[in-house]
Amino acid sequence: MRGRLRWMIVAVLVAVLLPVGLYSYRRTLTETHELLDGRLAQSARTLDVLIQHAGIDTVRKPDQGALVVPIIGRKAEEQLMHGRTYESEVGYQVFDMHGRMRLATANLAELPLPRTPISGFENYSFNDYGWRVFTLVDDISGVVIRMGERDDSRRDITHALWFDLGLPLLLGLPLLALLVGWAVRRGLLPLQRLTQALASRSPGNRQPIQLERAPQELQPVVAALNTQLERLEDALERERRFSADVAHELRTPLASTMIHLDGALSTHVPPDTKAALISAQSGLLRLARRIEQLLALARLEAGAAAGQRSEIDLVVVAMNVIDELVPLLGESGVDFAFAEHDESLKVMGNEAALAALLRNLIENAMHHVPAGGHVQLSLGRTADAAVIEVVDNGPGIPAERRASVFARFHREASSSGDGYGLGLSIVQRAAQLHDATIELLDGPFGRGLRVRVAIPTSTTATPLHS
């Protein structure tokens, strides 16, 4: 915006100043030429008045020929006068009514008189110069006076006008652009402060944005932003409360039903009834797992994990997740291995979100590996990231379908078990909250899948990106 405003203002100034400058130059040039022409006419009339008082014969007798007034050259003129006086660039002629020259300056002595002289201005080319000549025909005194000025003298004045009018414009425009840029930058400082206030705002912060000395035009924007932020926080809070309420309302009856089923299975019941109870128990277990996944995804989407980052040891989080999954690992018949690179691997993040990421990575791998297969979790570190890798020797995922597996409720045909296609969605959301990258790669043994998550390492506690 600063750049656009600066260049638009400069372009408008150029569009206005250039035509105004050209118009001013043309007007000044016209006025200058008129002034110079007036000077020629005035000089001719002054000389005519002097001749009238003295008489043409007093100036020079006809039989004496023309009196030629010597004119020194420009260099001699500059040396003599210590500066330029333009003496060599002006001259005059005086003729009687018979066309005989009586008086002239040396630089115009050879300029012929027209057959029929007429008072007025004319242009001549004479002795490699152009001349502007004013002719005055005075029938009363019986003389024709011609007063001339060289064109190069006028061109010097024109160049001086170009210089005087153009140089300030050429030098002033860059300076004006700098000043306009500074003024625009100063004028947009409130917007920059507003941007900084929004960028530094932590999730869950309900304090309204305050801008000191905010311009009147920006105050309605700040007020509208504060209103929208308050509504957004209210909506997120309702979602968080809804997730918590759903978790409480669903877990309690599910737990109670599981207890009753366990009690019923511990009694002597007919085989058909026992099989039905076992099937109902299995269905409830799948329902409980699905509810847990949906609630985890809802909490992540609502930004429940988007609080301040704290230092988390990934090794400890991974060990806790593995402890939770021990019963599932034992029942699956899958060979699971955990290979940590160091005794500890510290990152800045949210423990609940990272635990959900690890848990769903492991479960997703187990759902794609048949009994007797292998799943390995490894933790490592690069120069700027902590790396989580989960490798399995299942059928893998073709490269052309890997981008679609992060969609919710998407299940691959090779998936087994009671998965619902939410695991990788939860992994993706948890990774987004930590600015992490996810890669789905080929397994190292010619088959299977290798999921690689790289979490940028940081030494400062900054808000997670919700």
- Strand portion: 15-25%
* Quaternary organisation of the protein chains: single chain
Q: Structural class, from helix and strand content? A: alpha+beta
Helix content: 40-55%
The total strand number stands at: 13
At the third CATH level, what is the topology name of the largest domain? Beta-Lactamase
User: How many domains?
Assistant: 3
Arithmetic mean pLDDT: 77
Q: What is the C-alpha radius of gyration, as a whole number of Å?
A: 49 Å
> Outline, from the CA principal axes?
rod-shaped
Distance between the termini: 27 Å
The CATH top-level class label of the largest domain: Alpha Beta
- What is the spatial order of strands in the main beta sheet? 1-3-2-6-5-4
> What kind of sheet is the major sheet?
6 strands, mixed
Number of helices: 10
Q: Give helix and strand order, one letter per element, not per position.
A: HHEHEEEEEHHHHEHEEHEEHEE
CATH architecture assignment of the largest domain: 2-Layer Sandwich
Point out poorly predicted stretches: 413-420, 459-463
What do you see in this structure?
The chain has 466 residues and is an alpha+beta fold. The chain has 3 domains: 2-168, Beta-Lactamase (2-Layer Sandwich); 202-304; 309-456, Heat Shock Protein 90. It has helices at residues 2-54, 56-59, 74-81, 151-187, 189-199, 219-265, 271-301, 314-332, 351-367, 423-433; strands at 67-69, 90-96, 101-105, 120-126, 129-138, 143-150, 310-313, 335-340, 346-349, 374-381, 385-392, 437-442, 449-456. Helix 6 runs antiparallel to helix 7 (271-301) and helix 8 runs parallel beside helix 9. The chain is rod-shaped. The model is unreliable at 413-420 and 459-463 (pLDDT under 50).
